[in-house]
């Protein structure tokens, strides 16, 4: 009897964003890249973002505690939702990072058990589940 292979979940290393910069700002970045301070534009932008996050680290920590936000990766499985449903609970999910709703979660189960979903970062969920929760996602 052959065993079924299971592909482990792997969170994406990066998320692509788009920004608009003025010509002068872009020129200054190009100058710093050309002079070897940064390997490329992306390196400069990532460094600038990390510096700003570090600068506001205490504020971010206070907000996370005050708003009861989970930090990191939150996986929501079918079993998690069935357990909540059996207990008559509705979940209010708040995450700074990544939320992954399992592929076997049905739209009805999600609507019956998730009262709110706030993701500061990335949400990975089946399209039908995302559509079912559209009015609850902030």
UniProtKB/TrEMBL annotation:
<dbReference type="InterPro" id="IPR013321">
    <property type="entry name" value="Arc_rbn_hlx_hlx"/>
</dbReference>
<dbReference type="InterPro" id="IPR041088">
    <property type="entry name" value="RHH_8"/>
</dbReference>
<dbReference type="Pfam" id="PF17723">
    <property type="entry name" value="RHH_8"/>
</dbReference>
<dbReference type="GO" id="GO:0006355">
    <property type="term" value="P:regulation of DNA-templated transcription"/>
</dbReference>
<protein>
    <submittedName>
        <fullName>CopG family transcriptional regulator</fullName>
    </submittedName>
</protein>
<dbReference type="InterPro" id="IPR010985">
    <property type="entry name" value="Ribbon_hlx_hlx"/>
</dbReference>
């Amino acid at each position: 009897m052959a065993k079924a292979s299971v592909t482990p979940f792997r969170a994406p290393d990066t998320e692509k964003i788009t920004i608009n910069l003025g010509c002068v700002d872009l020129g200054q970045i190009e100058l710093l890249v050309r002079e070897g301070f940064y390997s490329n534009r992306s390196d400069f932008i990532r460094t600038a973002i990390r510096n700003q996050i570090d600068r506001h680290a205490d504020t971010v920590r206070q907000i996370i505690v005050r708003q009861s936000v989970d930090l990191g990766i939150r996986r929501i499985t079918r079993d998690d939702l069935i357990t909540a449903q059996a207990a008559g609970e509705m979940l209010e999910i708040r995450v700074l990072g990544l939320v992954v709703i399992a592929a076997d979660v049905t739209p009805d189960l999600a609507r019956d058990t998730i009262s709110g979903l706030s993701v500061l970062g990335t949400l990975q969920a089946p399209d039908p589940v995302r559509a079912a929760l559209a009015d609850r996602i902030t």
